């Protein structure tokens, strides 16, 4: 037998090479399948978490509407995007930060259901003051501009809620002046809508020290 014949005899059969190739391809296919299944599972879990978040948000919105059912039905407050709006004319007279009796009675009605809602959801209440776009009249000895007026009105409502029994660590004040109007300041009626106080539940910031085991 020649050396050439011996060399040919030592070469692996073609079916063995094909088998190795198929084994490698099956391995790659299995890896791709495992990756696809893992990705699909992760996507499904992310979608489920998002659905749960939306359900919780919807439950909180419904709970807040139930707590505010009476004043909403009476038209004394509005609820838009989770924000409770109270017309400035209900709370204050024009260019004033002194709480009117009607406004104090309304805050007395709202305090208890708001406090329960905030406690159950571990949230804070942000009280925000807003004005229209008209500048403060010259000669006003109390406020230099709309920023100062909106700030004082927010503080007045915040203090009134605390006086009614709201824990001081559950509520805080913010001022926006003439910024963020709900409608265009085109006439007296639209400006009256922009003169308002809003109360919005916001997440409570967790103390990082309390999270240390």
UniProtKB/TrEMBL annotation:
The chain crosses the membrane at residues 14-39. The keyword Kinase does not apply. InterPro entries: Bact_OuterMem_StrucFunc, OmpA-like, OmpA-like_sf. Residues 77-205 form the OmpA-like domain. It holds the Pfam family OmpA. Residues 182-191 have a biased composition (Low complexity). Gene3D superfamilies: OmpA-like domain. This is OmpA-like domain-containing protein. It comes from Zhongshania marina. It comes from the Bacteria. One of its GO terms (cellular component) is membrane. Keywords: Membrane, Transmembrane, Transmembrane helix. Residues 182-213 are annotated as: Disordered.
């Amino acid at each position: 037998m020649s050396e050439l014949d011996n060399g040919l005899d030592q070469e692996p059969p073609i079916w063995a090479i094909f088998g190795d190739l198929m084994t490698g391809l099956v391995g790659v296919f299995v890896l791709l399948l495992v990756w696809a299944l893992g990705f699909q599972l992760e996507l499904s879990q992310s979608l489920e978490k998002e659905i749960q978040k939306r359900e919780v948000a919807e439950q909180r919105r419904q709970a807040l509407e139930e707590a505010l059912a009476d004043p909403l039905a009476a038209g004394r407050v509005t609820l838009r995007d989770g924000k409770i709006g109270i017309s400035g004319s209900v709370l204050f007279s024009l260019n004033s930060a002194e709480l009117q009796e009607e406004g104090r009675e309304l805050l007395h009605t709202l305090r208890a259901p708001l406090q329960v809602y905030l406690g159950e959801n571990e949230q804070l209440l942000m009280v925000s003051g807003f004005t229209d776009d008209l500048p403060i009249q010259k000669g006003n000895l109390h406020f230099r501009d709309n920023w100062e007026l909106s700030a004082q009105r927010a503080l007045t409502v915040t203090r009134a809620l605390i006086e009614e029994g709201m824990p001081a660590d559950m509520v805080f004040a913010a001022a926006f002046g003439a910024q963020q109007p709900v409608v265009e300041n085109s006439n007296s009626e639209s400006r009256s809508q922009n003169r308002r106080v809003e109360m919005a539940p916001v997440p409570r910031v967790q103390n990082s020290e309390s999270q240390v085991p």
